[in-house]
Structures
1.
Amino acid sequence: MVGVSRGERPDATAEQYFGPDADRAHPYGSPLLADPRGLPPAHVVTAGSDPLRDEGHAYAARPGEAGVRVTEIHYPGMFHGFFGCPELLADARTAQGAVADVIASTVSSRKKSG
């Protein structure tokens, strides 16, 4: 994601993500540049040692300014990718549980199949 808060990063990570010919300002690659009106509710998970932390915080704020329901949880001692390590990290298990709870809360009023 291209950071609006820090501007485009000409580093190797962005180059790998976008490739040499991509439009780095396209909302699919840079959600902070998208029009947030009409987006579904969001739950944003950020990590303290993530190079995209500031962009995650900014993204969590932007849809809320347009009236979209957003929740955010921050794990200050974690790193980018921690979410995928629940077998090793208690914070990853907690984060995954929180995401599951948020998802479950969106379907609780729907009819259960069966």
2.
Amino acid sequence: MKKKKHTIVNIKLDPEEQELLESVERGEWKTTDNIEEETTFAKEAAANFIRKDERITLRLSSGDLDRLKQKAAYKGLPYQTFIASVLHEYAAGHFIEVDSIK
């Protein structure tokens, strides 16, 4: 069976993610014998990790909401999902704060 080579474009990886990508590209990863069991386990773990169990009410300016809706539409996402994703990325530390650039 031929291995597919996937190319990741325009994604900023942190050093750990970059090392993982390079490791995969060097062929250092092996397929597990029980892939279905491992896949099921990983899906359940991911679902439990990202479970949304809190609800918030948020007031935004209509202009900000319109721009968020436009960006969500461009990405093909519902705007509430897009907003949750942006907040998650920020909370996980994937955005650079303007103060740290100066």
3.
Amino acid sequence: MTGFVVAIIGALFLVSGLVVDGGLALGARVRAVNEAQEAARAGAQQLDLAVYRRNATVRLDARRARAAALAYIAATPDTATVQVSDGRVTVIVHAEQRTQILGLAGLGSIGVSGRATAVAQRGVTGVIR
């Protein structure tokens, strides 16, 4: 009977670890997506003002867009990759969530990521889809 009780307690411990640490991982993924969205928006605001003033064409300054997105991510504990092309800023954020219970079973952290793309556009009309 003692072996059975030990096995049940171990199984309950692992299930509780999945629930608690799984919830923390989901929360970390939501945070990573939020950070990616905000960083992409920050990058998409970096227009080439000379071109815009000359002929009202919305075009990103790719260097400034990438720098703005990375600067936003630098204020977070996470890392990211940024790609700027065709008027779009794509950010992929990578985060690690430390485990609370599963760490005792040898799983110290769970890696999560979030991806977002923002498009530079003028006003609320003529939305690019």
